[in-house]
Amino acid sequence: MYDTRPRGRSASTLGCCATLDTRHQFTIGIDYGTSSVRALVVDIADGREVACGEYAYREGEQGVVVDAGDPNIARQHPRDYIDGLIASVRNALSAAARDPIFTPAAVVGIGVDSTGSTPIPVDEAGEALALKEEFARDPDAMAWLWKDHTAHAEAEEITTHATERGEPFLAKCGGVYSSEWYWAKLLRYLRKRPDLAARTAGWVELCDFVPAWLTDRTDPSSCPRGVCAAGHKAMYHPSWGGLPADDFLDNLEPGLSRFRYTTNPVPSDHKAGGLAPAIADRLGLTPGIAVAVGAFDAHMGAVGAGAGPGTLVKIMGTSTCDCLATPMDRELPDIPGLCGIVPESILPGAYGLEAGQSAVGDIFNWFVSHLTPAEYGGTDAAHQKLSEAAAELSPGESGLVALDWNNGNRTVLVDPLLTGLLVGQTLQTTAAEVYRALVEGTAFGALTIINRFEDYGVVVSDVINCGGIAEKNPFVMQIYADVCDRPMRISRSAQTCALGAAVFASVAAGGHPSVEAAQAAMTGTKASVYVPDAGRAATYRELFRIYSQLHDAFGSTGDKPRTDLGTVMKDLIAVRQQARAARSPNGAADA
Q: In 3D, which of 1, 5, 7 has the Cα closest to residue 490?
């Protein structure tokens, strides 16, 4: 069901910008994704997206260096980051040249977002080790991509160490440290590759590495660091004086503390510096223009989608990241299972809360790539055909329920070693029914996150979605609306993360006086809204109860009684019979 009431902001209602001279000023948002980097040229007066350039990473499989012998390895080559930045920006500028009012001289700032935690080992000058010829083919010398889970044992050790010592370092990141995060990866590196560690002066997150490179401030001891990466992945928090103490780190592994940087992290409305002349020449831009401090893609995506108090922004792609900003005028409780409660990591003056799911689009792609019958065609065609067929089914009609842990659980269990599950299949189960159950499973995971926020007093009054799935798949979004029993809005921009980076670039350059003013001018949502159907929502409440039984049983940490699963299959059959009876012309359930 669609609600087509006007949403978002239009150029005619941009009163906050009336006094600003933004008629011919532009910023560039650079968005580093898992397989490519995009550069978006944006008019800061109204958020008009003038042009976009994209560069697909050359190394590895779709940009990811993997190892057939270890499915947990996921690395990227820093050369792709630099080559990609230059190519994407120059391509975007070339395309923007067709706009009658655009000129490169009118670009006043650059913002950068990236995946994370994606840290890079660097030398004393801040050069990535993998850019040196001797280490160019060594995966351990490359960037450790966000979805690298090789450090799962180290993450568990960090959690245990902090808990046994009574340290507060986990309090703001959900109580459990993740293998996807900064210190776990550094600890594994130090133990596995002491030879490389001896050549390593520091580690720099990708979202910090690029602004440092653009401004020629690459020394790891002094390069600008963003509070987003530091707070959500490196256990930084002002309440305990910054990063974890030296003795805590060195008790994990002697020498780990030397990778503890001393730069004071700041929000992304700050300048990292001015664009270095040599880099400006390579890009075709003006030297000295503002480069904003970097942040993670999802957090800047939240800003680009129009995040404000009470608005949950879901960045939906291969995985999802859920971001919510809430005012800092009251203390928040520590919320178990979150990826962080960090002051100003999303919006200035607000706590930034992050959660997410380790696999969403990846689950759909896995099913299409490996298990879908040939008659559904290739990957793109199969997604469309399966969505169309699955949309014809009623909630509960298949008798299936799935757990969405095919790549582990990020929130609220924080366990990379959990796996997916499908319950209720019979010899009559179809591909479309399984596909729908997988989509529903990810929606149940999304609702679990919303419930965790609200259980701890953080109200979710509004949901905005962005990313490829939100843009392209109405079937998925309607299920999310029905499962979560909330309207689902869609960001106006198809490049929301890059747009958020452009918003921060505008503030850093002085084009707007605040992030909120820049958002009012540059962001908005689409007119159509996915509205929940009361009948479908009621069925999903029953299915969610069953999902929650499975969630608690298979995700239990052993510190609470196991959930009884004896009724699950029979309950699913009862839901299936009721759903089929409702669809049957004579009201009788099929066998």
A: 7
For 485-542, the pLDDT digits (tens) are 999 999 999 999 999 999 999 999 999 999 999 999 999 999 999 999 999 999 999 9
Q: Which of 528, 533, 466, 454 is nearest to 497 (CA)?
A: 466
Return the ∠ at Cα 230 (arms to 187 and 464), rounded to 5°: 120
pLDDT tens for residues 58-95? 999 999 999 999 999 999 999 999 999 999 999 999 99
Residue 118 CA to residue 76 CA, distance in Å, equals 9
CA proximity to 509, closest of 281, 286, 291, 225:
291
Please give the Cα distance from 182 to 82 (Å, whole number).
21
User: What pTM did the predictor assign?
Assistant: 0.86
- Cis peptide bond prior to 117, omega within 30° of 0: yes
CB 120 within 8 A of CB 210: no
Check the CA dihedral 41-46-48-50 and report its sign: negative
Three-state secondary-structure class, residue 275: coil
**CB contact at 8 A, 451 and 337:** no
Question: What's the token pair of residue 383?
Answer: 């997604």
The pLDDT of residue 303: 97
